[in-house]
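Please review the protein record below. Tell me whether the encoded fold seems credible here:
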Amino acid sequence: MDQSSIDALRAQDIAPLGHFINGRFQDGETGARHQVLSPINGQPLALIAEGTPADVEAAVRAARIAFENGRWSRMAPADRKKVMLKLADLIEARALEIAVLGVRDNGTEITMAYKAEVLSAAATFRYYAEAIDKTYGQIAPTSDDVLGLVHHAPVGVVGAIVPWNFPLMIGSWKIAPALAAGNSVVLKPAESASLSLLKIAELASEAGVPDGVFNVVTGRGSVVGEALALSMDVDILVFTGSGVTGRRLLEYSAQSNLKRCYLELGGKSPNIVFADAPDLAEAAKVSAAGIFRNSGQVCVAGSRLLVQQEIYEDFVSEISGHAEKYRVGDPLDLNSQIGAVHSLPELEANLDFVTKAEAEGAERRTGGTRILTETGGYYMAPTVMAGVKETDNLFQNEVFGPVLAVTPFKDEDEAIRLANDTVYGLAGGVWTSNLSRAHRMVAGIRAGVVHVNTYGGADLTVPLGGVRQSGNGHDKSLHALDKYFDLKTAWIKL
């Protein structure tokens, strides 16, 4: 990966894009298109199809026909595996092209996008491809005159709605296991970050995924997402996004066919630093990355930093120093360490959190401003807010931006109480040299993922999911396959 190659790809025009339905790009019912603005400079970037409920039903119909005729659902798992491995190879072969395309519409710094988006997606397709011909049913422990078999049957048509922050990584977490299990998929990407996923749909067809098995409908969530959730022929719905939208999807499920909904709804994750952390300098460096990389637009971001009182001031100074040293800028410049905030409304919301935090008594140690305004893009200085109280808006609510809330604590009991004092439960972190304390904290923090002496980086071998209002679904690991299968019992009299 070199700067000249990135710049050449950046300069390429993007042709207007339609939906990808039944193995080809096609215009929607109305022919209307949505203009995508690049967060890099605030300028128009691409035109994508503005989907309608009729477009959604066309995609769902194609997915249902493909599922029922068995062109993929009844294909031998070993053969599905070959196709998915070829798709992974194609993604890797065009990794830089896809990464640049994605950065242009979502603003993630290119070094992170290349690894966490494109190479991660290729690895995810490989992981589930390799897993699917090693997934067995069961034989029940019945009496000798009965044979009880438990089959894993694909559920049918999977509706998937994914966000803009890591569209390809999160999308692959849902698409890959769904396809591996033999299902058909209708994907709705964020209207502001669809480009990389449309490219993956095209490559899937090239790899041999049959027509109708993997479809993408672009457009607004209030139209396309709603139609997908209300469809009577979508069997399950998987979603990553806001709690407000997650609640609405559950309502749509109840209004339609009671489709199962698996929701990952974000968090306000506590990152807890004890005075006996094995390396406080490393803890500060990693904790800074855990909130500021990708401009804080990470669902598991360690956005609440809880620091033991005896090291509080020194640690706040250390992490503020890291925040000030980050190079924020053009995400397609290899010298930039942090890219753009995804959109102007997101940037304005981030700045509003800072204003409200100061009004509630928090102290701004660094950042909190819009920067690089001359570019026309959406950039924000990494922000550290100290003295945040547990009743403050910044302590309780997800910002989804580069804003860190820092709160002191006295002891282990208070740390656990503060960690659990939000409605969320997605992730957390603990820094300590005390092994017994580490285990107590893992047990005490109500979250789906708890890091110890690190923050972030959990790979595909372990699940990612939340508790409480962070949702009910799990991506990654073999556990993710469970939601894409129905259990079917065969009870056979011998």
In short: The first strand starts at residue 19 and ends at 21. The longest helix spans residues 110-132.
